[in-house]
Amino acid sequence: MLSLPDFKEKKVLYIWASKDMETQLKFGNSNLRLYKDGKLSKQISLFSIVAIFIIGEFTITSHLIRKFKECGITVFFLNNSFKYYAGIFAEAEGNTELRALQYRMNEEQELEFSKILLRNKIVNQYKLLSVYKKEMKSDIKSYELAIKMATKNDRLLGLEGLVAKEYYKLLFAKYDWYRRAPTTKEDINNMLLDIGYTFLFNIVDSLLRLFGFDTYKGFYHKLYFQRKSLSCDVMEPLRVLIDKALAKAYALNRINEKDFTARKGYYEFKDWEVGKKYTQIFSEIILDNKEEIYKYVLSWYRYYHNQEKYRKPKFTVRL
Predict the structure, then answer these.
(1) Please, which residues have CB within 8 angstroms of residue 237's CB and are 6 or more apart in sequence?
(2) How far apart are CA 94 and CA 291, in angstroms?
(3) Has residue 93 got a pLDDT over 80?
(4) Is there a contact between 49 and 71 (Cβ–Cβ < 8 Å)?
(5) Backbone angles phi and psi of 172, in degrees to 5
(6) Relative to the CA of 207, which of 77, 225, 232, 263 has its CA 20 to 30 Å away?
């Protein structure tokens, strides 16, 4: 298991393929080396990396893949539209005790875990809105009571949807907000949120794997073919980080409509290089909060083992 002191010293890399150039990743002298058209461009020690996002078309050597495994580095491969399509995973194999706890959970336990998760998410959403002096129609205490009284998972999903609809509308009211439509990229807001959530999801998934979780076995998001339901669960209270980053980027005029173009009903970056600017918006906030994210995932690991000894997992967004 990766310790917090070790994790604090680790980096998360975002590597883009170069347009019109052959891009290769190789291993040499304990370093990750980036080559462009056969020439060494950059290098960094493998021992300082915890995760890598590779965006675009790359050539990668089998030797380097083995080194990623040996050094406990998780690699995510994304296409030019930031859609994840493959990965190389570092994980704690054989944690049968933890996975047995996951598999043995009954519906009552899953519901209680889901309540912890949803209350945490909604509290963070209310806190972020307060920064922008926005107020929801319903007091947060009414939602907390409704969560406490819920007897079915569907009720929690309904409450989450009610809050989300008003939350997004209030937070992005100045920025042509229409609706939240995941994966559609039907407008600039949804496109950018999808990118930020993709980065966040994969960081959470990599940490859960390092602790030995089966990330396909969730409790709030139920089992579904090829869906990493536990990663979907655990990232819910963290989503506010991406929302915060986008709202701040708008306030600082870092979002420029001229950077985007609409094609066949969905938005994409107008220019290959411009995407790097938007990658930075979300990578900055993830790296600024990486220690808190680690502690939050660790709290779930501990809570699974002993609900009486450890506090309920909680992620508090820094405003």
Answers:
(1) 117, 120, 121, 124, 296, 314, 315
(2) 26
(3) no
(4) yes
(5) -115, 30
(6) 225
pLDDT higher than threshold 60 for residue 99: yes
Residue 1 has what pLDDT? 57
Give the span between the Cα atoms of 6 and 160, in whole angstroms. Answer: 35
Least confident residue range of 67-76, 82-91, 108-117, 187-196: 82-91
Helices (H), the chain: 4-8, 62-70, 96-103, 107-131, 140-149, 153-171, 188-211, 229-235, 239-251, 275-288, 290-305
C-alpha–C-alpha distance, residues 255 and 267, integer Å: 14
Strand partners, 260: 269
pTM > 0.70: yes
pLDDT digits (tens, 9 = 90+) for 221-231: 987 777 899 99
SS3 state of residue 31: strand
Tens of pLDDT, residues 104-136 = 999 999 999 999 999 999 999 999 999 999 999
Q: Torsion angle of alpha carbons 73, 76, 80, 84, nearest 10°?
A: -170
- Residue 314 sits at φ, ψ, to 5 deg, of -150, 130
Instruction: Find the helix or strand (DSSP H, E) in which 77 lies.
Output: strand 74-78
* Interstrand relation of 84-88 and 49-55 (parallel, antiparallel or unpaired): unpaired
User: Which pLDDT band, with edges at 50, 70 and 90, does 19 fall under?
Assistant: low
**Distances, alpha carbon 27 to alpha carbons 15, 41, 44, 46, 72, in Å:** 15, 13, 10, 9, 15
Report helix, strand or coil for 255: coil
What pLDDT, on the 0 to 100 scale, is given for residue 16?
80
How high is the mean pLDDT of the chain? 90
- The answer to whether 238 and 293 are in contact (CB under 8 A) is yes
Q: What is the four-CA torsion angle of 311, 136, 185, 276, rounded to 10 degrees? A: -60
State how far the alpha carbon of 36 is from the alpha carbons of 66, 67, 109, 117, in Å. 22, 21, 52, 44
Query: Which positions ≥6 away from 163 have C-beta within 8 Å?
Result: 122, 125, 136, 143
Q: What is the largest CA-CA distance in the chain?
A: 62
